[in-house]
Design goal:
Order of helices and strands: EEEEEEHEEEEEHEEHHEEEHEEEE
CATH architecture of the largest domain: Alpha-Beta Complex
Strand order of the largest sheet: 7-6-17-11-12-14-8
CATH class of the largest domain: Alpha Beta
Largest sheet: 7 strands, mixed
CATH topology of the largest domain: Fumarylacetoacetate hydrolase, domain 2
Strand content: 35-45%
Structural class: mainly beta
Number of strands: 20
Radius of gyration: 18 Å
Helix content: 10-25%
Number of domains: 2
Distance between the termini: 50 Å
Amino acid sequence: MAQRYIRVQDLQGRIYYGLLQLNQNVQVLDAPPWLQGQPIDLELEPDRYQVLAPCAPSKIVAVGKNYVAHAAEMGTDVPKEPLLFLKPSTAIIPTASTIFYPPQSQRVDYEGELALVIGDRTSCCTPEQAHNKIWGYTIANDVTARDLQQKDSQWTRAKGFDTFCPLGPWIVRELNAGATLQTFLNDNPEPVQSTSIEKMVFSPDFLVAYISQIMTLLPGDVVLTGTPSGVGALQIGDRIRVEIEGIGRLENTVVASRPTAIS
């Protein structure tokens, strides 16, 4: 099994990066692994930590319509160049956390995706150089308020709600280029999304190089590589699970929007 790099919070609220062991203990590192973090003399047992999203990026750069079949189901052609948008880091939640259904929307969709984690400062690189800038791989769900996406002239509101970027559960360093991505809804054994990631229009290396010509990517930043066909609506109470062969599974539950704070 590939090494699984995880980010956790202990019972005292301290946040650590670490290596997840087969017994579910976490071997703590002294720094994020892409900053050459090394094991220290601290190991957390499963009842002593809570799993967080595996990184805390300065930004999330996402790519739209990067699978031919998904572009078709959206009623458009594949863009001639990568279609980029940003999601705020405040949208990130870990596996087993809840997605809040915003009252502004009547149609919220799941979008299972492969996520890239950047390991080095990256600016104006080539695809060949970009390969070494990708530190690892994890799973994302680019949750989208579809009705607001269609209504607005840009996608910030539709993609940017709190909890709209489940990420995790951990990071692996290597991934088979033909790994299968599947999304499952509730107890249905048949996936609602299922494809090989090699069917992307623009490869991970190309995407990182392309983005780096526009903005500098920093260590720990995340790139979402696009969703395959089969996107669909979520309802309050649904459980949505995204699996990528060689990584694991990211599972979240949809709940009603958080109550408004009383001042």
